[in-house]
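Worked Example 4.2. Consider the chain below.
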Amino acid sequence: MDLQLKDRVIFVAGASRGIGLGIVEACLAEGAKLAMTARGAEALEAERARLAATYGAGKLWTFAGDMRDPATIDAAVERAETEFGPIWGAVANVGLHPCPPGFEIDDETWDAGLSQNLDSAFRLSRSVLRRMTPRGEGSLLLISSIAGLSALGSPLTYGTSKAAMNHLSKELARIAGPSGVRVNTIAPCNIIFPGGAWEERTKGPAGEPWLRWIDREVPLKRFGRPEEIALPAAFLLSPVSSFLTGAVLPVDGGQTR
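Applying the procedure from the previous section yields the following structure tokens:
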């Protein structure tokens, strides 16, 4: 299927690894131009160079900075539009933050967890919608988690912020819809990739309980891969999904009950 993304600019936050990088590659394969952002300049440049060898340097633009910070986000969006072209699609994919179990969470950790997950998504949404809505077209995608769909025993800051992200996307879909801009969310589950949290948890003998948990809780009895999030993401970002907005799509191997 042609997703009609050829030469459309897609802005991806958290693009240097994992789900974000998977989305970059899926959209490049559809002919899109990718504005890649991440905090780590070295990793970002390494991925840009690798992808440029396949898709061409003209298909890629990068910006290294803290995509939780409002001024940094606005600067990245402005520069992408000025240097690379009008943003058609954007992906809010900044997440995770260490948090202890239970409710004894200090204020600094609580605030940081919500900033990492919820605030970063809102601030990128605000910045790109300021540009998309006057143009009357575009697609915004938030990467949430099934931890925001029900209480799964995840760290309190994580599940709470992801639940708020799901609601945020539905409200933004109603606000932006009359202008022709769509807003959707993907809620992944256990996605494994090099350097990710699940790879670390499952190393060595200490990983055996986690592997048994996956076997028990996920009907497909395995982890998901970044590309299995990326392909639905490319569809939701594309004009082909033109009547789809306000959706929260679990991509979880059947784990959500």
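The mean pLDDT is 94. Residues 2 and 11 are 20 Å apart (CA to CA). Compare this with Example 4.1 before moving on.
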